[in-house]
From TrEMBL, chains A, B:
DNA-binding region: 31-50
Protein name: HTH tetR-type domain-containing protein
Transmembrane helix as UniProt keyword: no
MF terms (GO), sorted A to Z: DNA-binding transcription factor activity; transcription cis-regulatory region binding
Keywords: DNA-binding, Repressor, Transcription, Transcription regulation
PANTHER family for the chain: HTH-TYPE TRANSCRIPTIONAL REGULATOR BETI (PTHR30055:SF234), HTH-TYPE TRANSCRIPTIONAL REGULATOR RUTR (PTHR30055)
Domain of life: Bacteria
Limits of the HTH tetR-type domain: 8-68
A Pfam family it matches: TetR_C_6
Length: 196, 196
């Protein structure tokens, strides 16, 4: 852990314990008492940093997005659709070495399908945003004539995200049976005339 | 509800309540007391039919498989790969009208990625079986020359299942944004020379 001031270090430790707990037993089943015990802070110490379980969830999701973004935008940004998809493949490669990151989203995104879940709107918005970025990438590739002739671009955004999500579930259950990056590349090879 | 004897009817009512509870809040967070209350049986009545929460989970998963199988094998079976995939598309069409069925598996399969979950082995075995059936279907199609020339058959089993699982998560979150059967057909149209 970097050399943070004590309060920040404590906050980071709590976030790490919550990250693990939410990704293992889910948000609803995770207990604030257990999370506090896992990182050796008192209940009062936990509530000082995160007054409610919802606020802890929000912080964990923000951190997860930050990790993704740092990985995704390493080396700058561009409007190039092929570049975008290549970054996605790299992100999958990165996640394939970090089961905790994968598990957090796999567990929370399906748990959050219930409208009463505190992360329901977060995931609705997140998926809508991801679909919109992917539509832009596939549209760019279509305009540049880089989709195979029989490929319909409509819905590729939904399909690509579905593939990523579904791969995670199978991979978490049986890591040896599922090569996530290879499957994403194979999917793209049937869509594109060039390799992502 | 059909005209079952009282004990069977009671059992069916408990299963229905458990099906809803597991599909909404997950297995771990579901409460036996709440499930009993939801279907108006006493705690003793519930425990008479299902002595443990695990036994209730097992019965719910068996029922879910029975629903799938009845739908899938309606009209007999065959070794024809194209027929197999066409049945899968019909199953997706059927499930798209039954959110409860979709939600149960989406929530439980990701919750069960934790090795400590009582349905962990159930889902490992279920996915392994589904992959093996799909491999057989795609192999049959390959041998009959029905895969597009650039398509590699290896891994199509994993990809196809991932697509189904991931579509369910997005569809549960935003039904209007996701046409599950259309996306499955589009995926297959990029794999096959004929329409499934």
């Amino acid at each position: 852990m970097p050399n943070y001031p004590k309060g920040e270090r404590r906050r980071a430790e709590i976030l790490e314990a919550a990250f693990d707990a939410f990704g293992t037993v889910g948000y609803r089943n995770a207990s604030m008492v257990q999370i506090a015990a896992d990182c050796g802070v008192s209940r009062a110490g936990l509530l000082h940093h995160f007054p409610t379980k919802e606020s802890l969830l929000e912080a964990v999701l923000k951190q997860r997005d930050r990790i993704d973004n740092e990985q995704f935008f390493a080396g700058g940004t561009s409007d190039d659709g092929l570049d975008y998809l290549t970054r996605m493949v790299r992100l999958v490669e990165h996640n394939a070495a970090h089961p905790g990151i994968v598990s957090l989203f796999a567990v929370l995104s399906s748990e959050a399908s219930d409208p009463g879940h505190p992360a329901h709107v977060y995931f609705q918005e997140r998926y809508a945003r991801s679909r919109s970025w992917l539509r832009r990438a596939f549209r760019d590739l279509e305009q540049r004539g880089m989709l195979r002739p029989h490929v319909q671009p409509d819905g590729l955004d939904v399909e690509f995200l579905s593939l990523l999500d579904g791969l995670q579930v199978q991979w978490l259950l049986q890591p040896d049976a599922v090569d996530m990056p290879a499957r994403v590349r194979a999917f793209l090879s049937r869509v594109l005339t060039e390799v992502a």
